[in-house]
Amino acid sequence: xxxxxxxxxxxxxxxxxxxxxxxxxxxxxxxxxxxxxxxxxxxxxxxxxxxxxxxxxxxxxxxxxxxxxxxxxxxxxxxxxxxxxxxxxxxxxxxxxxxxxxxxxxxxxxxxxxxxxxxxxxxxxxxxxxxxxxxxxxxxxxxxxxxxxxxxxxxxxxxxxxxxxxxxxxxxxxxxxxxxxxxxxxxxxxxxxxxxxxxxxxx
Length: 203
Fold this sequence. Notes:
4 helices, rod-shaped, 6-stranded mixed beta sheet, single chain
């Protein structure tokens, strides 16, 4: 309660009746805020952007920003987080930050987190494309190796049954020759009688 005391020259005192008052000091304390995700580094695809924020009275909202422009809508309740599709921006370096405000209008901007968007990684990991892609297409290295091994084994067995090695030199060259024959036949399907006669002779 608030009262007043009066006195005269003789020292007589009188205290007034008290009145109730409410003190409302202005809120001048700004909130605190910090980015928790993503960490600085390379990102791609859909990215979770999140932050922590606190205030002496209460946080009214957190607005994420990308390169100084608002990223999504303001998040008004914890957890302060949103999903961001990084394919909507160009590959390269970008800055992410968060702005926290309280109901009194005090505002704090977090430290900036610098990231590198590289969505070419997504394309590289997704495969080589169609027949005109210039690579193995839908056939991977494992499948190609397996096919070559099967063809090699079958051809070597067939050559062993129907041919004979003429010299020890030819014997040392037999696996190499067979591999050349099989590989070339598999890739080009060209006639190979000349190569066959160079290293092995018919029965």
